[in-house]
Write a structure and sequence with these properties.
Glutaredoxin, alpha+beta, seven-stranded mixed sheet, disordered N terminus, about 210 residues, single chain, globular
Protein backbone atom coordinates (compact mmCIF):
# COMPACT_ATOMS: atom_id res chain seq x y z
CA UNK A 1 0.00 0.00 0.00
CA UNK A 2 1.43 3.45 -0.89
CA UNK A 3 2.59 5.50 2.06
CA UNK A 4 1.12 8.92 2.88
CA UNK A 5 4.43 10.62 2.01
CA UNK A 6 4.54 8.81 -1.34
CA UNK A 7 1.03 9.98 -2.15
CA UNK A 8 1.90 13.56 -1.17
CA UNK A 9 4.99 13.53 -3.40
CA UNK A 10 2.92 12.13 -6.26
CA UNK A 11 0.24 14.82 -5.93
CA UNK A 12 2.84 17.57 -5.69
CA UNK A 13 4.52 16.19 -8.80
CA UNK A 14 1.24 16.33 -10.70
CA UNK A 15 0.78 19.99 -9.77
CA UNK A 16 4.33 20.91 -10.76
CA UNK A 17 3.86 19.14 -14.08
CA UNK A 18 0.62 21.01 -14.65
CA UNK A 19 -1.43 17.82 -14.39
CA UNK A 20 -4.61 17.97 -12.34
CA UNK A 21 -5.46 16.07 -9.21
CA UNK A 22 -8.96 14.85 -10.09
CA UNK A 23 -10.92 14.58 -6.86
CA UNK A 24 -12.93 11.51 -5.97
CA UNK A 25 -16.41 12.70 -5.01
CA UNK A 26 -16.84 9.62 -2.81
CA UNK A 27 -14.80 11.36 -0.12
CA UNK A 28 -16.92 14.53 -0.01
CA UNK A 29 -18.77 15.18 3.25
CA UNK A 30 -21.05 18.10 2.40
CA UNK A 31 -24.12 16.82 0.58
CA UNK A 32 -26.28 18.53 -2.04
CA UNK A 33 -29.73 19.37 -0.69
CA UNK A 34 -28.56 19.21 2.92
CA UNK A 35 -27.65 22.04 5.25
CA UNK A 36 -24.11 23.18 4.60
CA UNK A 37 -21.77 22.52 7.55
CA UNK A 38 -21.60 25.48 9.91
CA UNK A 39 -18.23 27.05 10.66
CA UNK A 40 -16.61 29.94 12.47
CA UNK A 41 -13.08 31.12 11.81
CA UNK A 42 -10.79 34.11 11.66
CA UNK A 43 -10.75 36.18 8.52
CA UNK A 44 -7.64 37.56 6.86
CA UNK A 45 -8.51 40.97 8.30
CA UNK A 46 -8.51 39.51 11.80
CA UNK A 47 -12.29 39.66 12.18
CA UNK A 48 -14.39 36.56 12.91
CA UNK A 49 -16.33 34.96 10.05
CA UNK A 50 -19.17 32.47 10.34
CA UNK A 51 -21.46 30.90 7.79
CA UNK A 52 -24.42 31.65 10.05
CA UNK A 53 -23.78 35.39 9.71
CA UNK A 54 -24.74 35.13 6.02
CA UNK A 55 -28.01 33.27 6.46
CA UNK A 56 -30.51 34.60 3.95
CA UNK A 57 -27.82 35.14 1.32
CA UNK A 58 -26.27 32.94 -1.32
CA UNK A 59 -22.70 32.09 -0.28
CA UNK A 60 -19.91 30.82 -2.53
CA UNK A 61 -16.99 29.05 -0.87
CA UNK A 62 -13.82 28.89 -2.96
CA UNK A 63 -10.91 26.79 -1.72
CA UNK A 64 -7.75 28.46 -2.98
CA UNK A 65 -3.96 28.22 -2.99
CA UNK A 66 -2.21 31.13 -4.71
CA UNK A 67 0.80 28.94 -5.64
CA UNK A 68 -1.26 26.28 -7.42
CA UNK A 69 -0.93 26.51 -11.24
CA UNK A 70 -4.64 25.77 -11.68
CA UNK A 71 -5.57 28.63 -9.36
CA UNK A 72 -3.03 30.89 -11.10
CA UNK A 73 -4.70 30.08 -14.45
CA UNK A 74 -8.10 31.24 -13.25
CA UNK A 75 -6.80 34.39 -11.56
CA UNK A 76 -4.29 35.57 -14.18
CA UNK A 77 -6.94 35.13 -16.88
CA UNK A 78 -9.39 37.17 -14.82
CA UNK A 79 -11.88 34.28 -14.72
CA UNK A 80 -12.29 33.97 -10.93
CA UNK A 81 -12.07 37.74 -10.27
CA UNK A 82 -14.89 38.26 -12.78
CA UNK A 83 -16.99 35.55 -11.16
CA UNK A 84 -16.44 37.23 -7.80
CA UNK A 85 -17.62 40.55 -9.23
CA UNK A 86 -20.62 38.84 -10.86
CA UNK A 87 -21.49 37.31 -7.49
CA UNK A 88 -21.31 40.69 -5.77
CA UNK A 89 -23.58 42.24 -8.42
CA UNK A 90 -26.15 39.53 -7.67
CA UNK A 91 -25.94 40.20 -3.94
CA UNK A 92 -24.06 36.96 -3.26
CA UNK A 93 -21.26 36.51 -0.72
CA UNK A 94 -17.98 35.04 -2.01
CA UNK A 95 -15.63 33.60 0.61
CA UNK A 96 -12.16 32.38 -0.24
CA UNK A 97 -10.99 29.59 2.07
CA UNK A 98 -7.29 28.87 2.61
CA UNK A 99 -6.78 25.43 4.17
CA UNK A 100 -3.04 25.08 3.46
CA UNK A 101 -1.23 24.17 6.68
CA UNK A 102 1.78 26.16 7.95
CA UNK A 103 4.89 25.12 6.02
CA UNK A 104 2.86 23.78 3.09
CA UNK A 105 2.31 25.25 -0.35
CA UNK A 106 -0.25 28.05 -0.33
CA UNK A 107 -0.07 28.86 3.37
CA UNK A 108 -0.11 32.60 4.10
CA UNK A 109 -0.86 34.88 7.01
CA UNK A 110 -3.89 37.12 6.70
CA UNK A 111 -1.97 40.25 5.73
CA UNK A 112 -0.20 38.40 2.92
CA UNK A 113 -3.49 36.96 1.66
CA UNK A 114 -4.94 40.47 1.40
CA UNK A 115 -1.89 41.72 -0.52
CA UNK A 116 -2.06 38.77 -2.93
CA UNK A 117 -5.70 39.52 -3.69
CA UNK A 118 -4.95 43.19 -4.27
CA UNK A 119 -2.17 42.25 -6.69
CA UNK A 120 -4.37 39.90 -8.74
CA UNK A 121 -7.44 42.15 -8.67
CA UNK A 122 -9.45 39.59 -6.71
CA UNK A 123 -12.75 40.70 -5.23
CA UNK A 124 -14.01 38.16 -2.66
CA UNK A 125 -16.27 39.34 0.14
CA UNK A 126 -13.78 37.95 2.67
CA UNK A 127 -10.99 35.43 3.17
CA UNK A 128 -11.41 32.57 5.65
CA UNK A 129 -8.22 31.27 7.26
CA UNK A 130 -8.36 27.52 7.95
CA UNK A 131 -4.75 26.50 8.71
CA UNK A 132 -5.79 23.46 10.76
CA UNK A 133 -7.94 22.28 7.85
CA UNK A 134 -11.00 21.74 10.01
CA UNK A 135 -13.40 23.57 7.68
CA UNK A 136 -11.92 22.05 4.54
CA UNK A 137 -12.15 18.51 5.88
CA UNK A 138 -15.70 19.08 7.11
CA UNK A 139 -16.74 20.06 3.58
CA UNK A 140 -14.57 17.45 1.91
CA UNK A 141 -12.62 20.09 -0.02
CA UNK A 142 -9.99 18.26 -2.03
CA UNK A 143 -8.64 20.60 -4.68
CA UNK A 144 -7.76 24.19 -5.35
CA UNK A 145 -9.96 25.49 -6.73
CA UNK A 146 -12.94 23.64 -5.25
CA UNK A 147 -16.27 25.47 -5.22
CA UNK A 148 -19.31 25.08 -2.95
CA UNK A 149 -22.48 27.18 -3.19
CA UNK A 150 -24.92 27.57 -0.30
CA UNK A 151 -28.39 28.99 -0.93
CA UNK A 152 -30.19 31.54 1.30
CA UNK A 153 -31.85 28.77 3.31
CA UNK A 154 -28.43 27.32 4.16
CA UNK A 155 -28.65 24.32 1.85
CA UNK A 156 -25.76 23.23 -0.34
CA UNK A 157 -26.85 23.57 -3.98
CA UNK A 158 -23.53 23.15 -5.80
CA UNK A 159 -20.18 21.50 -5.18
CA UNK A 160 -17.41 20.71 -7.58
CA UNK A 161 -15.16 22.18 -10.23
CA UNK A 162 -15.09 25.68 -11.57
CA UNK A 163 -15.44 24.37 -15.12
CA UNK A 164 -15.36 21.29 -17.31
CA UNK A 165 -11.77 21.27 -18.66
CA UNK A 166 -9.10 20.18 -16.14
CA UNK A 167 -6.05 21.99 -17.43
CA UNK A 168 -3.70 24.87 -16.63
CA UNK A 169 -4.13 26.38 -20.11
CA UNK A 170 -5.85 29.76 -20.10
CA UNK A 171 -7.16 29.28 -23.62
CA UNK A 172 -9.26 26.35 -22.39
CA UNK A 173 -11.40 28.65 -20.24
CA UNK A 174 -13.46 29.93 -23.17
CA UNK A 175 -14.02 26.36 -24.39
CA UNK A 176 -15.18 24.97 -21.05
CA UNK A 177 -18.60 24.82 -19.44
CA UNK A 178 -18.26 27.28 -16.56
CA UNK A 179 -20.21 25.45 -13.87
CA UNK A 180 -20.18 28.39 -11.47
CA UNK A 181 -21.58 30.78 -14.06
CA UNK A 182 -24.23 28.22 -15.01
CA UNK A 183 -25.17 27.81 -11.34
CA UNK A 184 -25.51 31.59 -10.99
CA UNK A 185 -27.90 31.64 -13.96
CA UNK A 186 -30.01 28.85 -12.49
CA UNK A 187 -30.16 30.51 -9.07
CA UNK A 188 -31.01 33.93 -10.51
CA UNK A 189 -33.86 32.35 -12.47
CA UNK A 190 -35.17 30.49 -9.42
CA UNK A 191 -34.29 27.12 -10.93
CA UNK A 192 -32.67 24.11 -9.35
CA UNK A 193 -28.98 24.03 -10.23
CA UNK A 194 -28.77 21.69 -13.22
CA UNK A 195 -25.18 20.57 -12.67
CA UNK A 196 -25.31 20.39 -8.87
CA UNK A 197 -22.34 18.09 -8.36
CA UNK A 198 -19.31 17.99 -10.64
CA UNK A 199 -15.80 16.65 -10.25
CA UNK A 200 -13.31 19.29 -9.09
CA UNK A 201 -9.76 19.43 -10.39
CA UNK A 202 -6.58 21.26 -9.48
CA UNK A 203 -3.89 20.87 -6.84
CA UNK A 204 -4.68 18.78 -3.80
CA UNK A 205 -5.51 20.85 -0.73
CA UNK A 206 -2.31 20.99 1.33
CA UNK A 207 -3.64 19.83 4.68
CA UNK A 208 -1.34 19.18 7.62
CA UNK A 209 -2.03 15.46 7.37
Amino acid sequence: MPTINFLRRTLLGLAVAGLPFIADSAFANAEIGQLAPAFSAKGADGKPISLAAYKGKTVILEWTNHECPFVIKHYESGNIPQLQKDAAALGYVWLQVISSAPGNQGYVEGSAALKINAYRDAAPSAIVLDPDGKIGKTYGAQTTPHIFIVDPSGQLVYKGGIDSIPSTRKDDISKADNYVKLAFADLAAGRKVAHASTRPYGCSVKYAD
